[in-house]
């Protein structure tokens, strides 16, 4: 679960296991037994289900759900999330924070 080092096994090949998110993602890219509707379009595949995507960020967020990782923490309460955007929404909606956009020069 959250912040654990539980080892997870690929459900497709059953021969790869890891506790590391990046290792699981890399394996999903190359596991020969993963079904992809289109191998070129769906580059990233989940180790734990049939989810596929073409964007690394999507597979990272998706994998965190399976692993129970919530690295984004509210400094005012116990809220945690898998994505920074969810934390920003929480801060605005629950604590009244307005996020300022930083403009580049």
TrEMBL record:
GO cellular component, one term: nucleus
InterPro entries according to UniProt: Znf_C2H2_sf, Znf_C2H2_type
Domain C2H2-type residue range list: 44-71
SMART domains: ZnF_C2H2
Keyword Transmembrane helix: no
MF-aspect GO terms: zinc ion binding
Domain of life according to the entry: Eukaryota
UniProt keyword annotations, A-Z: Metal-binding, Zinc, Zinc-finger
Protein's name according to its UniProt entry: RE1-silencing transcription factor
Gene source species: Cacopsylla melanoneura
